[in-house]
Design goal:
This protein is an alpha+beta fold and about 130 residues long. It has 4 helices and 5 strands, in the order αββαβαββα. A 5-stranded mixed sheet has the order 2-1-3-4-5. This is cytidine deaminase. It comes from Staphylothermus hellenicus (strain DSM 12710 / JCM 10830 / BK20S6-10-b1 / P8).
Length: about 130
């Protein structure tokens, strides 16, 4: 876990864009805030599509914003939802986050209940795919 991580700040940043989520099909609204090693925060929301496979998750949306800004080192990701329970990143998002830092702190929060769960990505995704040969 990241020392001196302001969890509440990162959750609030994600909550600030949750209303922008576009989820007319599932009705599940998700927002993400990524904190980088440089101390910058990048935001994303889920954007669904009638062609379901074209849907993008909030976490990958935020990763894209991070990469677009020229950063490559996430240290924490806050994932906020309006569901009753906090939700973890999906498998695709776990793989994408692991591409940049398999030790990322994952903060999952439900705005409905106020419950927060914190895990290291390695706990959620111990063996990401890699092209490295060891």
């Amino acid at each position: 876990m990241v020392e001196n991580l302001n969890i509440d700040f990162l959750i609030e940043k994600a909550k600030s864009v949750l209303k922008n989520s576009y989820a007319p099909y599932s009705g599940i609204h998700v927002a993400a805030a990524i904190l980088t090693r440089n101390g910058n925060v990048f935001l994303g929301v889920n954007v669904e599509n009638a062609s379901y496979g074209l849907t993008i998750c909030a976490e990958r949306s935020a990763i894209s914003a991070m990469i677009t800004a020229g950063e490559r080192e996430p240290v924490a990701v806050a994932i906020v939802t309006d569901l009753d329970k906090p939700i973890p990143p999906c498998g695709a998002c776990r793989q994408v986050i692991a591409e940049f830092n398999p030790e990322t702190t994952i903060i999952m929060h439900s705005v409905k209940t106020g419950k927060t769960i914190i895990r290291n990505l390695k706990e959620l995704f111990p063996n990401p795919f890699s092209l490295e040969r060891k």
